[in-house]
Amino acid sequence: MEVYEGKAKKMIPLDDGKYLMEFKDDATAFDGKKKAQFKGKGWLNAQISAKIFKLLEEHGIKTHFIGIAGDNKLIVEKLEMYPIEVVVRNIVAGSLKRKLPLKEGTELKEPIVELYYKSDELGDPMINYYHAKILGVSEEEIKEMEKIALKVNEVLREYFKEKGILLVDFKLEFGKNAKGEIVLADEISPDTCRFWDAETKKSLDKDVFRFDKGDLISAYEEIYRRIMD
């Protein structure tokens, strides 16, 4: 069976049509230009993702998560993945600083939803509905993804607020299952979300690695500790 390997995970087909999603200890940034390994990162991302997927399922959001299969492995539903990333932003940070005349840390009056084409070769460019249609993704499918993404934002923003964490922004990926349903996929972890401590505004996500802000594992462990309490 063919194993699909990305920068942070491996997707291993199982005999029953499901996949084993194995989280790696690798960390990359700036389109793979910066790389490192952090022992325990894969375990943390797997456990955090499982916890969040369970939470979202409890709120009626369908995900590809089926169960935990090991320290750094999840069993997930087989999906036909869309070539689109959906990003939701609540607070100005990252690339949004270069798009709007607002200072980092400015809370947005309402969430911003952005679409990106998943392509390492092209640098994951930002796209719109017209581009998506050319890529074979209909306007109706995009609207459904955006609707789900905003519901995810509503659930997680409140959840993390109770944990003393600001959900600054995050990336989601989607796929279509055998029934033709659009399902939340990939992972939800400090690799794919921007988390700040609500009081200190300290980064608790991959920005720690991107911009040399301290110890990555300590930041991820802090997220894990708060959501498991």
Query: What spatial form do the alpha-carbon principal axes imply?
Result: globular
Low-confidence stretches: none
Q: What is the end-to-end distance? A: 39 Å
Please give the radius of gyration in angstroms: 17 Å
Q: What's the CATH first level of the largest domain?
A: Alpha Beta
What does this structure look like?
Pathway: Purine metabolism; IMP biosynthesis via de novo pathway; 5-amino-1-(5-phospho-D-ribosyl)imidazole-4-carboxamide from 5-amino-1-(5-phospho-D-ribosyl)imidazole-4-carboxylate: step 1/2. This is Phosphoribosylaminoimidazole-succinocarboxamide synthase. Residues 3-226 form the SAICAR synthetase/ADE2 N-terminal domain. Keywords: ATP-binding, Ligase, Nucleotide-binding, Purine biosynthesis. Helix content is 28%, strand content 33%. The chain is globular and about 45 Å long. Helix 1 runs parallel beside helix 5. The protein has two domains: 4-76, Phosphorylase Kinase, domain 1 (2-Layer Sandwich), CATH 3.30.200.20; 80-215, D-amino Acid Aminotransferase, Chain A, domain 1 (2-Layer Sandwich). It contains five helices and 13 strands. With 229 residues, the chain is an alpha+beta fold.
Topology, please?
Blueprint: E1 4-5, E2 9-13, E3 19-23, E4 26-29, E5 34-37, H1 41-58, E6 65-70, E7 73-76, E8 80-91, E9 107-117, E10 126-127, H2 129-134, H3 139-162, E11 165-176, E12 182-185, E13 193-197, H4 207-210, H5 216-228
Antiparallel strand pairs: 1-2, 2-3, 3-7, 4-5, 6-7, 8-9, 8-11, 9-10, 11-12, 11-13
